[in-house]
Design goal:
mainly beta; 1 helix; 4 strands
């Protein structure tokens, strides 16, 4: 997950363009979407190793 604090529900932007939704209707705090017990690391992924079920983040 990228280190953004907001989640943009992108399919909703079609309804923003149509005038049905406001931009605030499709933007939510990421923290509100995290399940309890999740360790949220706010960093970017710099490498992905699917064979070993690992990834590397930019700060490491």
């Amino acid at each position: 997950m990228e280190p953004h604090s907001d989640h943009h529900y992108q399919p909703g932007y079609t309804l923003v363009a149509a005038g049905i939704y406001q931009p605030s209707d499709v933007v939510f705090p990421e923290a509100d979407l995290m399940k309890r017990g999740v360790n949220w690391i706010k960093d970017s992924v710099s490498a992905f190793d699917p064979e070993n079920n690992r990834l590397q983040i930019s700060s490491s």
